[in-house]
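To the wet lab folks,

You asked to see what we're planning to order before we commit. Fair enough. Below is the target structure as tokens, and below that is the sequence we designed to fit it. If anything looks off to you, flag it before the synthesis order goes out.
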């Protein structure tokens, strides 16, 4: 068949050196429940026959590169032309509010937090998403977007199908890529789960603060004993004749009666 450029493609794809290949050379491709679930979801969209066309591409190394980022997977796949085709698979990422609900739900159940921290994906995790009104994998074809730069108008083409198989096998190796595809990286998710699972420190009562001396409360507060300074300091030693100092001077026959009485007062005090 000749395309509108007048180019007649060869019947076989161009061989690629150093391309990505599936570990599985025959039989089933997915090894874990989550990668099998991903392929089952695609097949449920009526893609089973189309996907099978890309299995040989995936096993013979026609996929030159595969990259995954938030909501998008991009692969370069060599077909029958010298220039590789660009295959893209997009999925809706969860919002920040969705992820907050997901993280709290996962942290509330110790089994999920423990398995995720150990690098495992518990099968019941799909129930957690479902209870929140979400789906871990695309629920309908409307949630999934596929396109390729090749001239094949059917979806998925061989290049997209090969990309799906390699993506499923990458999920086998690292289940967190599924969550990263939905918008949360391994590091961010695990850090958040650790924070939510951390014990809450006991509440320490706030120390009672004394109001400053110039505050309104201090003005009306009863002063402390230590703060009261007497107007007159009491003498450390009492004088028994001190009473005579309070009297008017008394003189008889030119002699001071006050001075005469002082020795008597001092003797009486002893």
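Sequence we intend to order:
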């Amino acid at each position: 068949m000749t395309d509108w450029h007048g180019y007649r493609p060869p019947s076989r794809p161009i061989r690629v050196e150093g391309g990505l290949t599936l570990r599985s050379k025959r039989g089933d491709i997915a090894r874990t429940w989550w990668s099998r679930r991903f392929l089952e979801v695609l097949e449920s969209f009526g893609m089973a026959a189309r996907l099978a066309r890309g299995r040989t591409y995936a096993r013979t190394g026609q996929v030159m590169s595969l990259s995954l980022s938030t909501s998008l997977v991009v692969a370069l796949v060599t077909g029958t032309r010298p220039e590789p085709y660009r295959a893209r698979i997009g999925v809706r990422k969860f919002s920040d509010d969705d992820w907050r609900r997901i993280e709290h739900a996962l942290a509330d159940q110790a089994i999920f937090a423990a398995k995720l921290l150990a690098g495992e994906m518990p099968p019941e995790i799909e129930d957690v998403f479902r209870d929140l009104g979400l789906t871990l994998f695309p629920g309908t074809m409307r949630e999934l977007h596929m396109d390729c730069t090749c001239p094949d108008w059917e979806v998925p083409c061989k290049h997209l199908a090969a990309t799906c198989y390699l993506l499923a096998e990458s999920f086998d190796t690292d289940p967190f890529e599924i969550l990263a595809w939905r918008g949360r990286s391994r590091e961010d998710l695990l850090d958040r789960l650790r924070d939510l699972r951390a014990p809450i420190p006991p509440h320490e009562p706030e120390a009672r603060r004394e109001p400053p001396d110039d505050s309104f409360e201090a003005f009306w507060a009863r002063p402390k004993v230590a703060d009261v300074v007497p107007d007159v300091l009491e003498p450390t030693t009492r004088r028994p004749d001190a009473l005579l100092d309070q009297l008017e001077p008394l003189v008889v026959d030119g002699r001071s009666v006050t001075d005469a009485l002082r020795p008597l007062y001092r003797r009486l005090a002893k």
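Structural context that might help your review: Confidence is low (pLDDT under 50) at residues 228-237. The first strand starts at residue 63 and ends at 69.

Thanks,
Computational group
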